[in-house]
Write a structure and sequence with these properties.
- It is a single chain.
- This protein folds into two domains: 65 residues, Serine Threonine Protein Phosphatase 5, Tetratricopeptide repeat; 58 residues, no CATH class.
- It is built from seven helices and no strands.
- α3 runs antiparallel to α4.
- The C terminus is likely disordered.
């Protein structure tokens, strides 16, 4: 009888522990969403450093979210952490190679940082996404204008 009682108690502890673990996963997911939304709001308010802090925490929680990396890269560009921004852009593009906006911003960042060969490689990926000459030309002009604005004294936030 005692062994049956211990077995039932043991199963109860395992059940409670598994419920706790599932709850922890859900709260982590909720925390990720809260951090991304907070980062997005901080970007809109031009609080770029705060956005970068929130979004760095978000990508630590969920390493496979291209949007979070893209938002992080944008915040890092505006606080002029160019190397970290390029890394975040590259991760965003790796996770979602079909995101033309991320590719455009990555090419602009690479041009700004002087990595012409890498910029050309990503520009070719962008050309495949925007095959018409006019759309690709517009993307290239956008890249050059973004790079020029980051070099200038007062960058403006992304649209």
């Amino acid at each position: 009888m005692k062994s049956v009682l211990w077995m039932v108690c043991g199963m109860g502890v395992v059940a409670l522990a598994s419920l706790y673990f599932v709850g922890a996963l859900e709260s982590e997911s909720a925390r990720f969403r809260r951090l991304v939304e907070g980062g997005r709001a901080a970007l809109r308010q031009e609080k770029f450093y705060q956005a970068s802090l929130d979004l760095r925490q978000a990508v630590r929680i969920k390493k496979d979210n291209a949007e979070a990396y893209l938002l992080l890269a944008r915040s890092l560009m505006w606080i002029r952490y160019f190397r970290d921004a390029v890394g975040a852009y590259e991760e965003s593009v790796r996770l979602d190679p079909a995101n033309a906006d991320a590719l455009t911003e990555l090419v602009a960042a690479l041009l700004n940082f002087g990595h012409l060969e890498k910029a050309e490689r990503y520009a070719l990926m962008l050309e495949k996404l925007r095959p018409t000459t006019r759309a690709f030309a517009l993307s290239c002009v956008t890249c050059i204008c973004m790079a020029a604005s980051w070099i200038g004294p007062s960058p403006k936030p992304f649209g």
